[in-house]
Amino acid sequence: MSDAGTGAPREASVDVIQRELTAFARRARAAAARVHPEIPLVSYTLLAHIEEQRGCRATDLAAHYLLDKSTVSRQLAGLEKLGLVERRPAPEDHRVQVLHPTEAGLRVLATAQANRLAAYQERLKDWSSEDLDRFAGYLLRYNAAGPADLSGPR
Amino acid sequence: MSDAGTGAPREASVDVIQRELTAFARRARAAAARVHPEIPLVSYTLLAHIEEQRGCRATDLAAHYLLDKSTVSRQLAGLEKLGLVERRPAPEDHRVQVLHPTEAGLRVLATAQANRLAAYQERLKDWSSEDLDRFAGYLLRYNAAGPADLSGPR
DNA sequence: AGCTTTCAGTTGTATAGTACAACGGTTCTT
DNA sequence: AAGAACCGTTGTACTATACAACTGAAAGCT
C-alpha cells in the first residue's frame, strides 16, 4: 500500500512540498522540449486548452494561464503560422476571435498527448493504483486553490 | 481524513497527474518572479543548492538541474555580481571553482526561503497534517525517479 | 617527457517565453 | 454622443536557455 509520508511535522512537509514542486517545475521545460520538439511548446498547452474548451478567446487563455495577453497573442500567431489553430471572428462581438484547433492541430495534439502520457505511464509504472489516485487528488486540490497565490506577500 | 483520490482507474490518474503537474510548472515561473523580484531568480535555486551542498562546482549544478554549463556560468556571473556568491579556486585542481554563498547570499536566501515557505503555508493551511505528509511523500517519490525521464522516447 | 584526450568554465550567438506599455478598433454605459 | 471598458496587436526589453567554439588545466599514454 501507500508508502508515502514520513510522519514529519507540518512545517517539514510543507517545506518538502515546496522544494519538490519547485524541482519539478524547473525540470519540466527541458523535459517538455524533448517530448515534442516539433511544436514550439508552450503553445502545446494553449492548443490543448483551446481544444478542451471547444473554442475560446485569447483573453481566456491569458487569464487561465496567468500570461500577458501579448504573450498569448504571439503564441497564437505561432500556432496559426503552423496551421494548428484557426481564428474565427465572432459575429456577436467584433473584438474577439474565437480560437479553434485545425485538423492538423488536433492530430498534433493527439500525438503529443499520447507521447506525454506514455512518458508519465512509464515513470509511474511502479506505483499502485491507490497511490496514483491519491497523488492525482492531491495535485488537483493543490492547483484548485487558485492560480495566483504561490506568490505570497508582494 | 484524506479526501484525495476519486477511485479513478490508473490511466485517468496518470492523466490527471500529468496535467496538473504541467499546470503547476507553467505557473511556477510567474509566481516565483513575484515572490522575490530582487534576485534574478532561477539563480535563487542555484544559490540554495550551493548553500545546501556547502560548496559545490558549477558542473555539479549543471548536472543536477540538467542545465547547460553555459547557462550555469551566466547565472553564477549574475549571482557574483550581486555579491551573493563567491568563487574560490580549488587548490587541488585549478580548473574548478568552489562556490560558496557570501554573507549577503545567506541573508537573501533566508529571506526568500521564508517568503516562499510562508506562501506555501498559506496555500496549504487547510490541509491536514496527514495529507501534507502524504503529498510530500508522493512528490519525493515522483522526483526521485530521476531527473531526466519525463522525456520519454527521444 | 611529450602528445593527446578529457574536463571546467567562459563567451558568442540564437531562440523561446515572457512582461509592460502604447495603440487601434469595438462595444457598453451613461 | 462621450467616455469607459475591453480585445487583440505591436514595439521593446529582459530572463532563461541551448549549442558551439574556445581557453586553460589535468590526466593518460605511449
TrEMBL record, chains A, B:
Transmembrane spans: none
HTH marR-type domain sequence ranges: 14-144
Entry GO MF terms: DNA-binding transcription factor activity
One Pfam assignment: MarR_2
Domain of life, source organism: Bacteria
GO-annotated biological processes: response to stress
Protein name: MarR family transcriptional regulator
Record organism: Streptomyces filamentosus
